[in-house]
Amino acid sequence: MNDYSRETFLDLNTFRGLGEDPKYHPPVLTDRPREWPLDKWADAPRDLGFADFSRYQWRGLRMLKDPDTQAAYHDLLCELRPRTIVELGVYGGGSLVWFRDMARLMGIDCQVIGIDKDLSRCQIPSSERENISLYEADCSVLETFEPLRDAAHPLIFIDDAHSNTFNIIKWTIDHLLEQGDYFIIEDMIPYWYRYCPKLLTEYLASFQDVLTMDMMYANASSQLDRGVFRRSTTKE
User: Fold this and answer.
1) What is the mean pLDDT of the chain?
2) Is the pTM of this model over 0.85?
3) Are 219 and 226 in contact (CB under 8 A)?
4) What is the pLDDT of residues 115-150, one digit of tens each?
5) What angle do CA 84, 158, 64 make, to 5 degrees?
6) What is the dihedral of CA 82, 83, 89, 90, to 10 degrees?
């Protein structure tokens, strides 16, 4: 096994165009020209190309997962039948309830765990928390993740907090993930690849002996873009 266990990984979420690369990389418009001709003004797109999350909800709770991502997770749940789903970043809690309900519909005995350093925004009523656990933890203090060690497998671990991600990956490899378990990074891979591609590529390669990218799901939606990883070896 190669050495993936460097002391610390830099938090790639700190890069916003200044860092390893000599200059800022502006976004590239792929579905429209930047300079739109005025004689075709009426035909110009009327959006910026960003997903509109405000209308996505589950049972009245805001859910920050678009339909393509929901469909991908639906299929992954059917295939893996996880006993535990861990999501970093709770917000209102809509996705936690959605995961719990999907697992129930599929007849899966699954515990859904939401982790956030501030649970005050969670809107899941106490009457709806069966098979849902909430923990306060800090992504920069890995010791606060210790309660997860006893989680049942198969397991899906979702990073939707976007803080200290690669050190968390290392912690899960060392203490949590078993062969066949998943670590999923939502949303951030395209941004990191834009602003710090060298470090991102280096960091991902450092896990090459223990993780692989699951191409069935890694291209299923823009939120999951190249961020679905599967534990490929057993723990030593």
Assistant:
1) 86
2) no
3) yes
4) 998 888 888 888 889 999 999 888 889 999 999 999
5) 115
6) 110
Closest CA to 85 of 11, 175, 164, 176: 176
Mean pLDDT check: name the lowest of 15-19, 114-118, 146-150, 173-177: 15-19
Residue of 4, 111, 29, 73 whose CA lies nearest to 227? 73
Residue with tokens 């970093």: 88
Q: What is the pLDDT of residues 179-195, one digit of tens each?
A: 999 999 999 998 888 88
Q: Three-class SS string for the chain?
A: CCCCCCCCCCCHHHCCCCCCCCCCCCCCCCCCCCCCCHHHHHHCCCCCCCCCHHHCEECCEECCCCHHHHHHHHHHHHHHCCCEEEEECCCCCHHHHHHHHHHHHCCCCCEEEEEECCHHHCCCCHHHCCCEEEEECCCCCHHHHHHHHHCCCCEEEEECCCCCHHHHHHHHHHHCCCCCCEEEECCCHHHHHHHCHHHHHHHHHCCCCCEEECCCCCCCCCCCCCCEEEECCCCC
